[in-house]
Amino acid sequence: MLQYPRPPFPHQQQPMPGKTAAMDPTPDHGETSYKGSGRLNGKKAVITGGDSGIGRAIAIAYAREGADVLISYLDEHEDARETERLVTDAGRKAVLLPGDIQDPEQCRAIIAKAISELGGIDILVNNAAHQASFKSIDEISDEEWELTFKVNIHAMFYLAKAAVPHMKPGSCIINTASINSDAPNPTLLAYATTKGAIHNFTAGLAQMLAEKGIRANAVAPGPIWTPLIPSTLPEDSVKNFGKQVPMQRPGQPVELATAYVMLADPLSSYVSGATIAITGGKPFL
Description:
With about 280 residues, the protein is α/β, with parallel strands linked by helices. The chain contains eight helices and seven strands. Strands 3-2-1-4-5-6-7 form a seven-stranded parallel β-sheet, with helices on both faces. Strand 2 (about 70-75), helix 2 (about 75-90) and strand 3 (about 95-100) form a beta-alpha-beta unit. The two termini are about 25 Å apart.
C-alpha cells in the first residue's frame, strides 16, 4: 500500500478557490499511478470542477480508461490546462470550458459544448462545489448561503436537466456528495446542508430516470487533500486535516478515482441510487 502523507502539515493558507501548485504536500491525482484498462472506451464525459482535486483525478482516470472529457471549471486556468495536458497525454480529447455554474445558462452551455465538441454525453459528473467555514450562523451572509446552494445543488439540477435529453440508455450521472450529508460539521453549515440535499437529489433522480435506462449515483468523500482545504479552512484545521478519521490522514484525490470509474462502467448496470462512501474508515450511515 502506498504511504500517503499524514498530518501535521506545514502552514499554508490560500485565497479561494486555491491552487494545486501552492499545496504542501502536493496532492496525488494518479498522474503516475493510475493505469487504465479500457473500461470507458469511446465514452464522452462532462466533469464539473475538473481542473483540480477530485475532478482532476476523475479526468485522468476516465481518459486512461478511454473516455473523452469536457472539463468545466470556474477560472483556475493554470490548473485546468494541466488537467487538459494529462488527458491529451492519455490519447483522449479534452475540452476546457471556464465559467460560473451558479448561472443556469452556463450549465446549459456546458452540455451544449459537450454535444458539439465531444459528439454526445454518456457520463455527467457533478463535482464542483463551494465551501466556506463559519463559527456562528450570524457570520453567514444571505449572499454566502445562496451562493453555496446555487453552486452545490442548483447547478446539479440545471446540468442534469440539460443532459438527460441527450443521454442514451446506459448513460449515468454521478454526484459528489460528502460525509457531511451524514455527519455535518457545524462550521460548514451551508456546505453540509447542500450535501444532504445532493444525497436526496441523487436518490430521487435514480428512481425518476430508471425507465430511461439512465443511472444516478453519488460518491461521499471524507477529508480529501484538495485546494479547497487550504483556501477555506482555518489554519489549525489545515495543519491537522484528516487526523479525525481512523486512518488518521486525508485521502488523496486518486484514492477516489476508482469509485467514479466503477459507477460509470457499463458493467455496473444495476447500480443506481447508491452512495459510495470514501471516508478513511469513518462509518457512513
